[in-house]
């Protein structure tokens, strides 16, 4: 048997002949000549090596046992192709597919809200969330394992298209009973403290060092490096030091009184969140829909109103 010689037109001819009972009626249905239908049927039988139709007592063509098996297979294939065409159309319209969304670790406090919103508005799109520090997210963009990213300052490389989607202020935090928790704080009083910094490669680490170096103007300051915002928050609550951190990470702790703000010079530091993707690659329809949905609902997804309330207290 030559399975690769079978065509959809031949299978359609077999189906129609068995349905109509005659080659002439099948030819009318298919808008073909009777010889053309007969030729397709004979070619199909030659490929299968068996007779696929026979005449019943009334002279009508009906499928043989082998023909019935082939027709059943044709029906399954047609159903599979129909599903495939629906899936292709969904991919074309961007309501299906897979999109990898990279979010810097500071954004993990609102990233689940982004994904939940996307799953509600684009239920057919599989949004896979990747959390990492700034360096890791940039690497993901470079090696194309990340399609769309949310981060602070956009990188120079890889070349990217970035759009601001919300405020991303950084504030200094301390324990509620800390001596810096009340009133304005001088630079000298600030630099007497022990600072808790994120690891190398973190955007928060870069911003913290830049701020402290500017305030210190050559004066040394003490610090301890920690691997996550959560560790820093718990350490600040425990009184191990103070920290410059994204306001997004401490909304709940400030509201509950577990953390307090340090009102030091130059604070809060205004920054922006950006939504970006590689400039040298076109977005797939699904990626474009995810990108546009985040743009439309960024204020809600990023809890921007709550963050602005935090900043307004300084």
Keywords:
314 residues, alpha/beta, Arc Repressor Mutant, subunit A, D-Maltodextrin-Binding Protein, domain 2, 3 domains, 5-stranded mixed sheet, 3-stranded antiparallel sheet, 12 helices, 46% helix, 20% strand, transcription, transcription cis-regulatory region binding, WH_DNA-bd_sf
Explain what the structure shows:
The protein is α/β, with parallel strands linked by helices and 314 residues long. The protein folds into three domains: 3-91, Winged helix-like DNA-binding domain superfamily/Winged helix DNA-binding domain (Arc Repressor Mutant, subunit A); 97-167 and 271-302, 3-Layer(aba) Sandwich (D-Maltodextrin-Binding Protein, domain 2); 170-262, D-Maltodextrin-Binding Protein, domain 2. 46% of the residues lie in helices and 20% in strands. The chain has twelve helices and twelve strands. It has helices at 8-20, 23-30, 34-48, 65-93, 111-121, 134-142, 187-191, 203-216, 229-237, 251-256, 285-301, 304-312, and strands spanning 53-55, 61-63, 97-104, 125-132, 148-151, 160-167, 170-174, 194-198, 222-226, 243-246, 260-262, 272-278. A five-stranded mixed beta sheet has the order 4-3-5-12-6. Strands 10-7-11 form a three-stranded antiparallel beta sheet. α1 crosses α4. The longest helix is centred in the first third of the chain and has 29 residues, at 65-93. It is rod-shaped. The termini are far apart. The model has no long low-confidence stretch (mean pLDDT 92).
